[in-house]
Each structure stands twice: as C-alpha cells, then as structure tokens.
Amino acid sequence: MLRVVTELVSSGEQVVAIVNPASRHFDRISELGAHVMGVRVISESLLRRAGIDAKDGQPSTARALVLLDTDDVHNVHTALTARDMDPGLRIIVQMVNPRLGKQLHSLLGDCVVISGPSLAAPAFVADALEDDELTWLEIGDRRLVAGQAELIREPHLTVLADTTSSATPELLPMSSADPSGDIVLGTGIRTVWRTRDVRRAGWLMAMSDVLDRRVRRIAAVMAFLVIIGTVLTHYIGKMDWLRALYLVAGAVTSAGIEDDKFSEAAPWAKVAGVVVQLTGIVLMALLTAVIVDSLIGARLSRVIGGVRGRPRNHVVVCGLGTVGARVLEILSERGVAVVGVEHDEDAPGVQTAHRLRIPVVIGDSSNEETLRSAGVQRAQSVLALTDGDITNLESAMVVRDLNPDARITMRMFDHDLAQRVERRLGLGHSRSVSMLVAPAIAAAAANRRSQVTVPAGRRVLLLTEVAVEPSSVAVGLRLGELDEAGGLRVLAHKHGADPWDWTPAYDGLLQGGDRIAVAGTRSGLARLLLATRAPNA
C-alpha cells in the first residue's frame, strides 16, 4: 500500500487510505499527505465516509477504489459492497489467486484485476538469466512477451517489426497478408536456454533416506538372531535347514511358532524359543517406531522432491510463495534447470514445483547446509524471494561465500536498505515487488494509460490500451480504419463488460466506452488518442 499511495500522491491525486492501525506503514502513509482512516475491518459505512456513495444518479466523490488486501475473499467482499453502492465506480483489485481473478469480471463487471506475481516475476527471471532481449507486458487481460521471433513460441500474435531488411527498421509491416519480421508478439517463450536438467530424488533415494542408520542396525541385529537361531535349531533340534529357518524367523518377526515337533521339544528349548520371540517383539516394535519416525521426520514429499546428483549452471529460487511460484513457471517455460528452496512444505510454489517436476529442498534458505543441498556452489544464478528482507540478505551473504561468481538477485521491500546493501556489500541486484507493481496499480486507479516500450533496432514501438470516449471522432469507425501501415495496429477489442476479443472483426464498429489494445509508433498513437478523445476533453 505504501508504494501505491506514494505513486498516487506524487501524481497529484487526492488519496483516502484505509489502513490497519497495527500496520508498520501507518505513520509513513500519513506523512505522505494522504487522508488516513485507521480501522481493522472495512464496512459499508466506512466506504461511505471515504466518499463511495452514489445518490440520485450522481456519481460518488471517489473516482476509484483500490483493494490491496492479501486476503482475496476480503477484497471480493469489499468490491461487491462498493459495486452495490456505486455501479459506475472504477474498481482495481490486486488478487493472489489468478483463477479467482479471472472470474471477477462476471461478479463486478468493468474492473481492473492486478496480479502482483505475474507483473513482478518476469523482472526477476530477466535478472537471473541476464536477459534483456525480451519485453514482458500485461495488456488486454493477457500476459504477453515481445522480442526476437526465434525466442517467441509459435503461433505469434502479430509481427511488430522487421529489422533485417534494411538499415531502417520497418515497423508494423502490412505489405502482405502474412508479413514477415524478426520482432514479434506472442504468449510464451521457446525452450532455448536449456541447461542440463536437474532431476528430483525419486522413490529410491527417498527410501534410502527413510531406511537410515537406525533401521539398518535393528535389521542387522534381527538378521544375526535369525542366523544364529537357525544354526542352533538345525544341529540341536535335528531339523532340516528350511524348517529351522522358518521357526526362527517366525519367532524373531513375531509371526508365531506353529510346528508339531516344537511342542515336543525339551523345556529349555521352549524357554529359548519364548526368549527369542520376546526379543523379536521388542525389535519389531523398535523397527516400526524408527521407520514411522523417519517418515514423519523426513516427509516423503520432501525427500522424493529433493535434488539428485550434482547440478551445475542452474538457477536456485529461494522462497516459493506466490512470486516464487510464478518464477518457477516462467523458468520452466524457458527450459531452465532450476531448484527451489522453501521452509514451508505447504507454500504455493512447492505444489507448483511438484507439478512441474522441479526439485525442492525443504529448509531455511539462510542456512548453509540447505543451500549446499540445492547446489548453490555450482549455480549460475540465485533468486532470494522470501517475504523477509533479512532472510533474503542472509541468504545472499551465504551464497556469496559459497559461490562468488553466482549472479544474486534479492527481493527487498525496504528501498533504502536495498540501496545501501548494493553499494556497500556488493551482493548483487535487489528488486521490490511493490515497486514493480505500484505504477500499474496507480495508473489504473487514475485511469491513465499504462504503456510498454518495445525496442526495434534504433526505433521503438509502444503497446498500450486506449479507451474510446463517448462523442469522440472514433465512435462509429470500423476497427480496420484505425490500422495504418508503419504507424498503428489494433491487437484486441473490448466492448463494455465483455471479455477481450483477440481476433476482432475489423469491420466491427467502435462504440463509446470500448477499449482497444494497440501497438504503434509515438506519432501513430498520438493520432489515435486525438481520435478517441471527447471534443471537450
């Protein structure tokens, strides 16, 4: 919240911040100039006091509502309450669960759903891979990537530029029905960065961890008793080897002794048999207890998903929360060898890792032995993405001691601490998820265009969303009339609360309130904005 309020206040917006009084950022938000309301539970009356209350056909004094609670259920509840109070209110919701976020439009109508992990994860991946050839963006409710055609997975959505035909790049080529070019827009990345795969431990290694030294010692004692007892029974009891082995094994394993000749044995033999059987009962109880203890202590989900062998040139991701889970997905798409480290077996990224068959080391990422188990001493990059600045800092320091050549990126909220750490300790880069996400949230709240720049040789293209204002010149135009070779291309169209259409009919007519996703040059985009703006705006 602190970053979002900072962005809004710095852009001249009047902000009412509803903050839990226990928040460590309460005083800092007040110092920014926002009007702060300190409450623990958001109610309808509180929203009304904050300016959300449409009466007699008049809109609320509040222009937008931004919901940043980490609890998706609370966000949805508050959003539904606000929508009932003002059907025309602009609502921006940050969602942790992407599936629930996709369903919000059916509940709230026109709203903006922001996914922090989806926006921040590509930046961490780019740091880990030292990859500046790709541009990730969120546009038209889709996560897209722009860059070299050989890096983008087919089918490509559109060709953005051709930088190979001449010294001057050709932007948005439309010279043929199937234009060619080397800069394209797509939905995913090809597997081109693959290193040697990192394999999970599997069942064999899992069972070797469960059958530890204690189990082996007890099993050795039981085997010794069976051998000695079989030999003595064979020679003293005058029995054949197989029957002697059967009797002794049955006694030691507590399976019982059922043999007619044994009932006729001498008293001392019967006493010896009972002693052996009692000893076997104790040993079987110990063996069962040790195996159960090993299963509970080791947790099969941990040992099965651990690292097999000695991986090299891989990426280690420490902290598998929502951001770490998204990072794993992107790295897996790229074909990158990756190992996860997480102390909580129930973290979202652990389940993602199991689904993608990525090895996970369960343990404290600031612990040297845990990091050694993940192979950081041979890793190419390490991402410290836990929720704690100090934990990430400690992890980075341990990694630097184990592998001075590793590329380290830390997730840190405290911007001042991050700058001092980078300057004085030289532990690599640091990024803040809130700083990566806040500009997008602030732009959505202020209804400003959020645009992404894609380089094409010495020129650039801008990708953004544009709203068609009522009574603007664009109302009534066909979508195809907006396209201009080398200047502008319509990528997708959204009418009202309908979902985005990424295969729009170019003879369809534009209406007031529609939104279009476009790619264009600065001049082409400027002409579009002039056409979609109301005359008096």
Automatic annotation (TrEMBL):
Q: Where is the RCK N-terminal domain?
A: 312-435
Q: Residues in domain RCK C-terminal? A: 451-534
Classification via Pfam families: TrkA_C, TrkA_N
Keywords in alphabetical order, please.
Membrane, Transmembrane, Transmembrane helix
Q: Taxonomically, which superkingdom?
A: Bacteria
Supply the PROSITE patterns for this chain: RCK_C, RCK_N
Which residue ranges does UniProt annotate as crossing the membrane? Answer: 218-237, 271-292
What protein name does the entry list? NAD-binding protein
Q: Which organism is it from?
A: Kribbella yunnanensis
Cite the source lineage.
Bacteria, Bacillati, Actinomycetota, Actinomycetes, Propionibacteriales
